[in-house]
Write a structure and sequence with these properties.
Elements lengths: L19 H13 L3 H7 L7 E4 L3 E4 H14 L3 E14 L2 E14 L2 E16 L2 E10 L3 H14 L1
Parallel strand pairs: 1-6
Antiparallel strand pairs: 1-2, 3-4, 4-5, 5-6
Length: 155
Amino acid sequence: MQPIQTPITGQEKPDDPQSALAALVQFYHAFNTRDLAEMELNWENTPDVAMDNPLGGIKRGWEEISAVYCRIFGGPAQVYVEFFDYTLHEHGEVFYVVGRERGRFAKGGEVIPLAIRTSRIFRKTPTGWKQIHHHGSIEDPALLERYQKAVTAAR
C-alpha cells in the first residue's frame, strides 16, 4: 500500500459525503476553521472515545476532548494542520488512518512549524463515521519543547 501524499486540508469536496474520506475532511475543516460544533459532529459522544496528543496528554470522553479543542480554538494562537503521507484502512464498521500532519502554530510574531505523526480511528454509526480515537506525536524533541513552551505561554 502506497501512502497518499495529497494533503487533506478540510477544503476538499469528497464525491461521497458518507465516505471515510469525507469524515477526515470534516475533521480537518472543523480544526482549521476553529468550529467546535462541527468538531463535535466528527467525534462520537461516548465515554470510551480517547485522544492522546503532545499538549493535552490522554483525554477520555467528549467532555475532556472538547476542552482541549476549546483551548485551541479560543486562544490567541492560530494553528493550522493538514494530513498527508497517510494510508487509510477500512474494515467493516471501523476505519483508521496512519500518517503525518504538517502545519504551523502562530502567535504574535512567532511561527512554529509543526510535524506530527498522527493516527485516527473512526467507527460507523447510524449517523455516519464518528472519530473514536486520535493519537499524535511530535518526534523531534526540540520542536516538541518549543511547541509546548509556546502553547503554555499562549494561555
